[in-house]
Design goal:
172 residues, mainly alpha, flat
């Protein structure tokens, strides 16, 4: 075996060991989606938000972001903390799961925002359309960071802490 093949094999084995099991991925994604959607729902209801349809849309958006984020965050946390102490696993889960949840929910929000404004944009794949797409997505991301992240508190943060504790207790 060549040295490059040995390194590649070792790296692939490391990544393979970091892959979470299907049960943890499936049930964790469902639970994380329900928790993130519920967190948004509670905050919107407490704020006496606009209409039931908009509350439902935002709650489903947060649930969808949570469902997509859990497998990604869990995999990256396992990859970072593989073979390390529990403190590292706890911190890795806090950072990776939070970043994945916020990032993927932000991405879904930006896509929904873009689809709303698409009818006023230039024809697809023109230079003007490219600028409109980039700036619409950037504005949507900024808006989510300013207005959307608050919907994760306090329930989402408590769930993040609990998920990090659960992950740190798992066998390394």
């Amino acid at each position: 075996m060549t040295p490059h093949a040995a390194i590649l094999s070792r790296n692939l084995n490391f990544v393979r060991r970091a892959l979470p099991g299907w049960r943890a991925t499936l049930f964790g994604s469902l639970l994380w989606a329900a928790t993130m959607g519920t967190s948004a729902l509670i905050n919107l209801l407490l704020d006496n938000w606009a209409t039931p349809e908009k509350i439902r849309t935002v709650s489903l958006l947060f649930a969808g972001g949570g469902a997509l984020a859990f497998p990604v965050g869990l995999f990256v946390a396992r990859l970072v903390s593989l073979g390390r102490r529990r403190e590292v696993a706890f911190a890795a889960t806090m950072v990776c799961l939070a970043a994945a949840t916020i990032g993927l929910t932000d991405g879904l929000y930006a896509l929904q925002y873009r689809s709303y404004y698409a009818e006023w944009h230039a024809p697809v794949f023109t230079l003007t359309w490219g600028f409109q797409l980039a700036f619409t997505m950037a504005v949507a991301s900024y808006q989510f960071m300013v207005l959307g992240i608050r919907l994760y508190f306090p329930l989402g943060f408590i769930a993040l802490f609990a998920a990090s504790l659960w992950f740190a207790q798992q066998r390394r």
